[in-house]
Design goal:
alpha/beta, seven-stranded parallel β-sheet, 12 strands, 16% strand, globular, disordered C terminus
């Protein structure tokens, strides 16, 4: 920590496996720098298992519920548990991805709440927690304006854990699935669509087993298909389901030839690792638009037919992986190590907010003059 600074007591609130990846390096670095860190977790999918895999201590403050009605009814109990944890831990600051529970509980305790978000379809949820939040940090390409508390950085959340400073791919993952370095691997992800921000999104195409089976068989004509899913799949697909340690998925993405699916975060992960992606959804994301339009790393499709056509086009590209590796390097030249940004933002708070706002305002003043 900076010389003369008193140790901070920061609590991270995580409610999804992606949140664990986003914050795990910041948790480790803040701890290493002499600060005290606590983690409050919502039990959803593999969140708790992933925290354990990274040897991160945590306390469960609630469990995920699928319907919006139950989420609203369940909010007070999560708030109460989190407030109790904050009081017990004597927390100075709360950090989340825009959790309503984190925002409300921090306000009840009268301590700052900083949110790191990147999902435009979650903007309705973000706006409800803004009155209880001190800063919302998003990628610079975030398409919504969240007002005076909005801070933009030149990166994506995936670069908090997949920037070359933070991640070195291990080819041993191929041994775990019995694959060779030259085998064409296709990673597929099916989403659950039960998050609070999914009220504005839809899985579109994978509504019945027949569609899913047809889609996987089509992909199988191009390479070996490996499925990761947030929801139950037809038993006929059991042989395709990926079975590796949770923390090795990014190694696999790096050595794969294509990612295709409904998961936006995994699409972005593939892109920053230099693997082509096809994202299937009725709503895109600012960070995926950036990767597609500026760097040519992936493709957003709104229909299954469009996605299937795109698969053939992608695999017709000569020297596919070397071409994408060059695109990845172009991206990395423009983007920051997001973990470094998170740690500095927390340590320098509240001066960090003013400093960033001043840097943004300076060119605007010069232009006006």
């Amino acid at each position: 920590m900076p010389k003369g600074m008193a140790p901070l007591r920061t609590m991270f609130v995580v409610g999804h496996p992606a949140h664990v990846h986003l914050f795990r390096n910041s948790i480790a670095e803040l701890t290493l720098r002499g600060h005290h860190v606590d983690v409050a977790a919502i039990d959803k999918e593999s969140t708790l298992q992933l925290l354990a895999a990274y040897d991160i201590d945590f306390r469960v403050v609630g469990r995920n519920v699928s319907s919006m009605g139950w989420k609203l009814l369940d909010t007070p109990s999560k708030d109460i548990r989190l407030v109790r944890f904050l009081k017990e831990a004597q927390t100075d600051m709360v950090v989340s991805t825009g959790s309503p529970y984190a925002a409300q509980a921090s306000a009840m305790r009268g301590i700052p709440h900083i949110a790191f978000s990147d999902t435009e379809i979650a903007v309705a949820v973000l706006r409800t927690m803004l009155p209880f939040t001190d800063a919302v940090c998003t990628p610079s390409v975030f398409s919504e304006d969240l007002g005076t508390k909005h801070v933009r950085y030149e990166g994506y959340k995936e670069l908090a854990y997949l920037h070359p400073f933070r991640f070195k791919p291990q080819a041993s993952v191929l041994d775990l699935i019995g694959a060779s370095r030259d085998e064409r691997l296709i990673v597929v992800r099916f989403a659950s669509w039960d998050s609070s921000h999914d009220i504005r999104a839809d899985g579109l195409v994978f509504r019945d087993p027949v569609t899913i089976l047809s889609f996987i068989r089509h992909l199988g004509t191009y390479g070996r298909v490996l499925i990761t899913s947030e929801r139950k799949l037809p038993s006929e697909l059991n042989d395709f389901v990926l079975e590796i340690p949770l923390e090795r998925i990014h190694d696999l993405l790096f050595f794969s030839s294509l990612y295709i699916g409904e998961g936006a975060t995994m699409a972005s992960e593939a892109g920053v690792l230099g693997t082509p992606w096809i994202f299937i959804s009725n709503s895109s994301r600012g960070y995926l638009d950036d990767q597609e339009q500026k760097y040519g790393l992936g493709f957003w499709e709104t229909s299954l037919d469009g996605a299937m056509d795109r698969v053939g086009q992608v695999f017709a590209i000569p020297d596919l992986k070397s071409s994408w590796a060059a695109k990845r390097q172009a991206l990395l030249r423009d983007k920051i190590d997001v973990t470094g940004f998170i740690v500095r933002f927390i340590e320098d708070w509240p001066a960090s907010l003013g400093a960033i706002k001043a840097r943004i305002a300076a060119p605007l003043r010069e232009a006006a003059e």
